[in-house]
Amino acid sequence: MNTLKAYLELIRYPLFAIPIVATLPGALIASQGQLNWRVGLTLLTALIGYFAGMMKNDYFHRNQDAIVNPDRPIPSHRLTPKSVLITASITYSTCVILGFILNVKAGLLVVALVAISHSYNAIFKERGIWGSISLPVGIGLLNVFGALAVSGQVPRLVWYAFAATTLYDFGTHITTTFKDIERDKRIGILTTPLQLGVKPALALSALATVLSFIVAVLPHWLEGISWHYTLWVLCALIATSITRLPLYLNPNEKNGYLALKGSMIGAIMFFPCLISVQISLWQSALVILPLLVLSMTLLEVTKREV
């Protein structure tokens, strides 16, 4: 039981909704709103792959955690580095197998996503702007994976979802690094704000976020898509703006963590907004709102940083 609790802490399970909402648009657009076994298996593959990435994160950064986060599972000796590495590797391998069960294209993209995740955790996370770029690209590609896994094709609408998701997550990654900025500076981890400077990093984050919202509404103007899906875009815009404003006014770790919470709320509403093209607004609400409530409840109940 203690080992299970340690692994649950390791994978940061309150964030479980992020890979689901990032994969849903591609899957539901490609399936024309139909739920089937392929959609379910696609979401499962994305979810466990995301958890594997979290395990690799703690494995590769265990030495830094021993200094600034000694209560985490590996530095506290509740889990050994070897056991975490083996578990993460088996989980990644399972994702690859599931991808190829869906189809060859999906399997190949899973291999690429595993490579991106591994590279981010092993190399790019401590390389400033490269970390802020590589991880969001992987999150954005979950849209493409969802479409390929379900139909073997990538409808044009999915590319809008990919671009909007990548840009939003790029802006989010930069702002949320502020929650550890003093600790990162102390142990020598180079994040985008430390590489570019606080003001340029915040400006770049704001630009990427604004562009993400612009891209998200383009299908309404360019593709003739009904406007009702943009209600989720508006809700995400409000949540993101309110929770990031304190960080822009006073860049510090406390406001960085507030920006993280706001970005979670925004992402859960924003990433899957285009599912409303294939299903009704109230049906999309039945998907998005429970994920949002459960995520925020878990975040508050666990009282752990994510």
The CATH topology, please? Tetracycline Repressor, domain 2
Q: Please trace the helix and strand order, writing H or E for each element.
A: HHHHHHHHHHHHHH
CATH superfamily: UbiA prenyltransferase
User: Which architecture would the CATH scheme give at its second level?
Assistant: Orthogonal Bundle
Percent in strands? under 5%
Give the CATH level 1 class: Mainly Alpha
Intertermini distance: 21 Å
| C-alpha-based Rg, rounded | 18 Å
Overall tally of domains:
1
Largest sheet: none
Structural class: mainly alpha
Extract low-pLDDT stretches: none
Number of strands: 0
Q: Tell me, rounded to a whole number, the average pLDDT.
A: 93
Structure summarized in a few sentences:
The chain has helices at 2-10, 17-30, 37-60, 62-68, 81-102, 104-122, 129-151, 156-176, 181-187, 192-196, 198-222, 230-249, 253-270, 281-302. By secondary structure, it is an all-alpha fold.
How would you sum up this structure, described in words?
By secondary structure, the chain is mainly α. It has a single domain (2-302), classed as Tetracycline Repressor, domain 2 (Orthogonal Bundle), CATH 1.10.357. The chain is built from 14 helices and no strands. It has helices spanning 2-10, 17-30, 37-60, 62-68, 81-102, 104-122, 129-151, 156-176, 181-187, 192-196, 198-222, 230-249, 253-270, 281-302. The radius of gyration is 18 Å and the shape is globular. The two termini are 21 Å apart.
